[in-house]
Amino acid sequence: MEHADEGQVLALNVPPDLGVAARAAVSLHIQRLVFAYRPRSVRLHAARPATDASLSILARVHRLCEALGIPLTVTAHPWNPGMAKAGTGHENAGVGTEGRAAA
To answer: Is 86 exposed, middle or buried (0-12, 13-18, 19+ CB in 10 A)?
Structure first.
């Protein structure tokens, strides 16, 4: 899983090959990021087609953001970490993802 701190927005990328085994680890990682960054909004990039694991992540992030009063935007646009401010918060947590250019 990748993330980028885009000022007031925490952008998250859920990899297309996210499996059930990684779901809990990714959910916990996202929760830690939200608590650490305290963003004004969260943008979740979800790959298509959605898997059961990625839909579970979406539901968990939705509940977390709703509980904290943080707006959540979900997009199927390809992940483009270059859209983020240079040098802020890029990370690969080892779940496996591939970067793609924005459409």
So the answer is: exposed
Max Cα-Cα span within the chain: 33
Phi, psi of 102 (to 5 degrees): -70, 145
**52-101 confidence digits (pLDDT tens):** 888 899 999 999 999 999 999 998 887 776 554 433 333 333 333 333 33
Q: Report the C-alpha gap between 2 and 102 in whole angstroms.
A: 15
Exposure on the CB side of residue 41, measured as CA atoms within 13 A: 8
pLDDT score at 15: 82
HSE-CB for 15 with a 13 A CA cutoff: 19
Total Cβ atoms within 10 A of residue 45: 23
> Which helix (H) or strand (E) is 41 found in, with range?
strand 41-46
Give residue 82's pLDDT: 58
